[in-house]
């Protein structure tokens, strides 16, 4: 057998006295696809980036032999020759990885000039070819666009083009599809697989998405808290996992535990109802006419829905389909045309009658990323009690604190509300991702809403934590008869949580129906594509 392209032996990574990666071994052959799998904090990203010494302030030891050369023994000058040229990286979030001040074409051309010594004109022409190879339409025009002018899929394709600019032998792909819709994930996987075959490069994929591993990788290595607990061929490990941690990961698919209802005429009024709903944004017109009158972009057109008490309505669709615009309109944060009623009151009439604040108590929201939606300068007590200060100002400090502790107990953060005071003065950064999302749910529930808007509530979480948070939401719905408007691109989450589903495309509903019928017998071609991509 030929020598492996990369052989890692006894890799250890420490921050000060704290070791976070504990002597792991793995190898990667030329043209092979290896997936590093594990939860957040398992050491996946740290292990991969430490191979190129890209983790600041980390102490790295062991061996990482790339075609006979130990990367961990190279000088910084020698490593600069390897980074980007022989080993390239695709980062998780292209919006933060790309420089917002330069067109994407200039950023790709810079790599070509530095690593391949091309002239400016040659680099520009090669950039357009690279963008075209990743499937970007109008590559010459897109090369002149800034990152914020591209969609999520286009930005990720630009990142891939930049990584492939110098024809690397090894590609480190760090969660390359996490920020993308389910259909775009499929496109990115297919693109990476095609480019990997064309260039003959090896891929080290870092991910917690087991469906992605099953569809893309040849072998898988499972990390738990910095220890390599299992590795082998994907088919073998997924069919017969040996380690309990691997078994737990594979068993973490969300489970459906809802109060099912017979499809009969509802006896109560809907919690949320929309008729002929239309939401549009003003956009400038080209030329001097834009000074006089603006055009409009219609984000939601002619939408109708009805959500009953204790039910979950799932909204699925790609980026740009109108999901988030619908959520903002439902929350009363965007002007709309048509009828939009929450608990029997239309948003427009609520504003005229000064009922806006009372209506906002009935509807709350849980956002996608709890780290960015929770103020880092506020304590747990301040975050959770904030709604009470607005909607229940008559409560004393002791009464508010008691309700905060009860809310923390409801979401499973405190075992006994009588003995949870030590949690109150902590800050969000002191908690894990799952704990922060529970805090966000407690903040929403403390004012006693009837409707929760769940905007991708688990997409930023690991599979095991996702399962726990969804089980919590299901329990709360049963106990409180809450209604959920669930916006997600995860088909497994829809299958576990939704009673009814709306499929949106270009601002319109293309299909609707009970979740079982829609997922198992979709009728519209777009729905079939989404369901197939999420399977």
Description:
With 535 residues, this protein is α/β, with parallel strands linked by helices. The protein folds into 3 domains: 6-86 and 168-250, 3-Layer(aba) Sandwich (Rossmann fold), CATH 3.40.50.300; 101-167, no CATH class; 272-534, P-loop containing nucleotide triphosphate hydrolases (Rossmann fold). Helices cover 39% and strands 24% of the residues. It has 23 helices and 20 strands.
CATH-level-2 architecture of the largest domain: 3-Layer(aba) Sandwich
- The largest beta-sheet arranges its strands as 6-7-8-3-9-10
What fold name goes in the CATH topology slot of the largest domain?
A: Rossmann fold
Question: In percent, how helical is the residue content?
Answer: 25-40%
Number of H/I helices? 23
- Structural class determined from secondary elements: alpha/beta
> Largest beta sheet, briefly?
6 strands, mixed
CATH superfamily of the largest domain: P-loop containing nucleotide triphosphate hydrolases
- The tally of domains stands at 3
Main CATH class of the largest domain = Alpha Beta
Spans of at least 5 consecutive residues whose pLDDT stays below 50 are none
Strand content: 15-25%
- End-to-end Cα distance, whole Å, is 36 Å
Gross morphology is globular
